[in-house]
Amino acid sequence: xxxxxxxxxxxxxxxxxxxxxxxxxxxxxxxxxxxxGDLGGRPLNEVTHxxxxxxxxxxxxxxxxxxxxxxxxxxxxxxxxxxxxxxxLAYASVHLTLYIIDQxxxxxxxASEIVKRxxxxxxxxxxxxxxxxxMTSTDAAMRRMGKRWKQLHxxxxxxxxxxxxxxxxxxxxxxxxxxxxxxxxxxxxLWRLPPMSRRTAxxxxxxxxxxxxxxxxxxxxxxYRIATKVDPFRILSANWSERxxxxxxxxxxxxxxxVAVVVTARRxxxxxxxxxxAAGIGAAGVN
Length: 287
Prior knowledge:
By secondary structure, the chain is an all-alpha fold. 73% of the residues lie in helices and 0% in strands. The protein folds into two domains: 40-171; 173-274, no CATH class. The protein has 14 helices and no strands. Helix 4 crosses helix 6 (118-135), helix 5 (107-116) packs across helix 6 (118-135) and helix 7 crosses helix 8 (147-153). The two termini are 26 Å apart.
């Protein structure tokens, strides 16, 4: 079996090896904090939530690889997409394992909690989906399944939505990060909506700045309206107040604007340096 940091001839793939080496770092940091006793009165609960947060981050990173490979004209970035997705599965599995340990291995209790508690139910559904994608992430599975492989792996998008909802409910009080990450998820989904020829148009990148910001504010409004007793209009109005700057909507707009500016700058530089061969970004897998 070919290891992920080697090519078909056995040569070292330095970029993939470097990315692979970085994947365990967040988990190791949380393990260090746990061993050092820096996590308060419920350390295992803190680690469980921390690993869960990194599960969502890695899942969003896996979805961001395709657009950023195109934005940066860096096809090699696509070679680590599968690795990052499998890392999200690994962190999700550790997240569930830590919860089982926190419940002192009472599996019947764990099962009943998953059934009774909505946020645990959707988290388990998302994990089950990631397991299905992980088990079929091999080259052999792609060849065996044919067109069905891509159809199955489109499930990563609703899985991402479920993971974010689980993230919201698990976070409870301060939902700033879940709102921000949800706004980035909205950007990633909106980028995929137009035909391929329009996705890379400058007008698309600049249009995504206000649209993704407005939808981020709408997500935040909806959360406070549905899930809390806080006046959602106060939260919405905070987006226009310097006192509460920056809000998640501002942060998402800033990221989207940076992307649009980077794309513009790269194209201006390309015009000055003359025509060059187009970057060969492959379309294998879910985009």
